[in-house]
Write a structure and sequence with these properties.
By secondary structure, this protein is of the alpha/beta class. The chain has helices at 3-21, 45-52, 87-92, 99-109, 136-153, 162-170, 176-179, 197-202, 207-223; strands at 71-72, 78-82, 119-122, 157-161, 184-186, 189-194. Strands 1-3-2-4-6-5 form a 6-stranded mixed beta sheet, with helices on both faces. Bound molecules: uracil (URA). The site of uracil (URA) has 13 residues, from helix 4.
Length: 224
Amino acid sequence: MDENITELISDLRTYLEYLKGMGITSLPVAENVPEKAPRSETLTLADVRTELGDCKRCKLHRTRKTIVFGEGNEKATLMFIGEGPGYDEDMQGRPFVGRAGQLLTKIIESINLSREEVYIANIIKCRPPQNRNPEPDEIESCNPFLMKQIRVIQPKIICALGTFSAQTLLKTDTKITALRGKLYDLEGIKVIPTYHPAFLLRNPERKREVWEDMKKIAELLNNA
Ligand code: URA
């Protein structure tokens, strides 16, 4: 074989090993190269919030106190997406402010970022009664607004927190244990699922895995 080609193959193998080490286990083929999410130069988060209005698109409006739109930096490179508001979030109208939220704040700070530098949102914006799981029609009503938020912010990385977030964003029913720590694609944005902070409160021995995922996120942000 031509010496140049042998060298090229060797370089390619090294590069693929490196990607594997980063958790990238598949590459898109040419036809499937995802379009970069269309960043609207004119649309802002305020516009999306205005369009959402006093939303009554699903049944959760009857029991919620406050719509929890999301908060943080409109130009964030890292976005966290949880499941949906709990009691504290519903009362305050802000995402992740309860016990799980305090842990999320520590997780964010573990990679030397602050809540103000990232953007925090949820799959659904209204608290389900008794914190039950979100239902498919509720997720479907809310999804266009989350997608618009993502397209305005255009983060480099989305960290999907927990089963509902990861499965909804990636349109899969694969378990979070299998999804976590790996890299996926959503409209050209890297998605890394990890465990939900509320799960970590119940299973503190799993924090180490989240720490590994956060290190990977920090590395990707630094190399971007
Ligand atoms: N859990 C979530 O998934 N989101 C919040 O905002 C709070 C708790």
